[in-house]
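Most newcomers find our protein records easier to grasp once they have seen one. Read left to right, the backbone structure tokens trace the chain's path through space. Nothing more is needed to start thinking about how sequence determines fold. An example says more than a description, so a record of this kind follows:
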Amino acid sequence: MRLQRYLAQCGVASRRKCEEIIASGRVTVNGEQIVQMGFEVDEEKDSVTVDGKTVTPVMLHTYWLMHKPRGVMTTLYDPQGRKTIVDLLPGGAPRLFPVGRLDYDTSGLLLLTDDGDLSFALMHPRHRIYKTYCARIAGKLTPEQAQRLREGLPLDGRMTAPAKVRILRSNAIYSDIEIAIREGRNRQIRRMCEAVGHEVVSLERTAMGPLTLGTLPIGAVRPLTDEELRQIKQVCGLHA
């Protein structure tokens, strides 16, 4: 098994973050520092440490859904002292990592888990998993502008992937739209709307693939149901 996958299964971090940890020289295998990607480990025989502490695979994973409020960082720690998602977790909660991120001023659905394989699969472009948002934007979004969002437009020199867009209500002051994207570029929806002439006033993620926010109160967390876990693993090609 590749080292970065082994670390993810140990609950160290997401697989991509584990690659950064390896590259920074914090990992040893049988006492030898390993910095190259793709190093193979035998999970039955090899001794693996991170920052000097032995890590072992986590057999049972935890999966929680959070309704992140605005004004909360999608990180485990913020050097500026701002509130983070950790502050919303109940006492004694296991160490979980967010799958992807929501901007500081964006609210909505956030999946937290210690399952590195699922986190990696959900974020991998090949699975083309839609993230659905409800946005309130300033001004009236025209059908022509909505079509531009659907077809894709240039951001940072690259076209955005086609999006699903529905105009829920619209007047001269504001428009409420539902938009679903498969990418995760920095502040993508806000920048897409700005590109067609509209500022985003508020933004909430309501779904990630088959997972939906439902009636979960703002700031609350709950475990995934068995059926939700089966569905999200199915769309990622993982066995439940």
